[in-house]
Amino acid sequence: MIVIPAIERGNFERVAQLAHARVNCSYALGIHPVFVPGASENDLHALRAAVSEAMQDERFVAIGEIGLDFFVPMLTTPAMRRKQEFFYSEQLKLARDFGLPVLLHVRRSQDQILKYLRRIAVPGGIGHAFNGSFQQAETFIGMGFKLGFGGAMTFTRALQIRRLATELPLGALVLETDAPDISPAWLRRERNTPDQLPRIGAVLAGLRDMSAAEVARATCANAIAAMPRLNAVLSPNA
After folding, report:
1. Record: fold of 1-123
2. Which residues of 191-228 are buried (b: 16+ CB within 10 A; e: fewer)?
3. What is the dihedral of CA 39, 41, 43, 46, to 10 degrees?
């Protein structure tokens, strides 16, 4: 099962279409922090309207991808940080109002992400491509979040990420590809694709001294726990 997150108002309809074109796809709606510079408050109004309508769609599972990015230079100016935080907080409120989980972009912004989660309670979700500290990871987990691991985990030099993937509770982990970005080690500098997920899962299994089947079962259950609306897509009658 693949969850396709939106990134801006212009692709809300497209991700829904993609999800309905494949039996193994679902989607999320949100405004990604990298696209906040070109976004307006009208886009937030459009997002609320789109979410309201999508609540009738069993393939709609979350608000995302939303969050904060304090790595990309153009996003780190004081004005742009404020705009990012405004869009992030408004989308958290949207998730709270509709009772939806959130798919979080957390790039050099773990503490700020957590600050807003303490203020605006949402029903959990996933911290995408997690690369924080153990203390930050435990805080996310304590707030009902799962943490995503993907291509970065496959690099032997990614010591902190691999340690997190090895030592955090298995019940807190989900697998992701982030295609076409964050390619695994065997596709370095090449385009990433979702079909790499089984091999990425096998890396996690090796790190934890488990079978790939055990990791697949556990991370699938964790994804459903993070996004309960997936149950409708996975059911035989969906």
Report:
1. TIM Barrel (3.20.20)
2. ebeeebbeebbebbbebbeeeeeebbebbbebbbbbbe
3. 180
Per-residue pLDDT 10s for the chain (238 aa) are: 899 999 999 999 999 999 999 999 999 999 999 999 999 999 999 999 999 999 999 999 999 999 999 999 999 999 999 999 999 999 999 999 999 999 999 999 999 999 999 999 999 999 999 999 999 999 999 999 999 999 999 999 999 999 999 999 999 999 998 999 999 999 988 999 999 999 999 999 999 999 999 999 999 999 999 999 999 888 654 4
- pTM higher than 0.90: yes
- Write down the CATH superfamily of domain 125-227: Metal-dependent hydrolases (3.20.20.140)
